[in-house]
Amino acid sequence: MVNERWIASGQITIQGTAADQNLESYWLEYGSGLNPAVWQPIAGISTSLVRDAVLEEWDTSRLAGGEYTLRLTVTDQAGLSSESRLKLILDNQQAGAELMAPSQNQCVNGQIAIIGTTNDQNFKGYRVELGVGRNPDNWQVLTQL
């Protein structure tokens, strides 16, 4: 069981290992929350051995944001099974940003205050860049976090 939590969005490549000397099949599922009571299939049952490679491509773009758990179940020909879980946070919302000062098309010189806000449930950082002219070809990073 994997206890790490990942933030992901859109198309996710699920990579891992589904192997047994007498492999019967494996399948991937997801559930809402950290301990799901209900599981949904990501794809059908597979019978091919996979070692540290792509198990499935998962399109999460239609799922609501929030905490989810992925589950990989592998069974062998004797009917024994094993599972591995990965906790993740889906964030399919575009981050919000607003620049309040200086205003659009305002001419400035000297030292000025740059004021803005950003809004995102899974905020990671920001970058403020400066470009000269109406359609800059080059941008200079002023600050970032």
Low-confidence stretches: none
The secondary-structure class comes to mainly beta
- Work out the helicity level: under 10%
Mean pLDDT: 85
Q: Quickly count the helices.
A: 0
Number of strands: 11
What Rg do the Cα atoms give? 23 Å
The tally of domains stands at 2
What is the CATH top level name of the largest domain?
Mainly Beta
Shape: elongated
CATH architecture of the largest domain: Sandwich
Q: What is the element string, with H for helices and E for strands?
A: EEEEEEEEEEE
Strand content: over 45%
Major β-sheet strand ordering:
1-7-6-3-4
User: Sheet bearing the most strands, described?
Assistant: 5 strands, mixed
Word description of this protein:
The protein contains no helices and eleven strands. With 145 residues, the protein is mainly beta. The protein folds into two domains: 5-90, Immunoglobulin-like, CATH 2.60.40; 96-144, no CATH class. It is elongated and about 75 Å long. The two termini are 33 Å apart.
Main attributes?
145 residues; Immunoglobulin-like; 2 domains; two-stranded antiparallel ribbon; elongated
Give the topology:
Layout: E1 5-8, E2 11-18, E3 23-32, E4 40-41, E5 50-59, E6 66-76, E7 81-90, E8 96-101, E9 115-119, E10 127-130, E11 140-144
Quick take:
With 145 residues, this protein is mainly β. It has strands at 5-8, 11-18, 23-32, 40-41, 50-59, 66-76, 81-90, 96-101, 115-119, 127-130, 140-144.
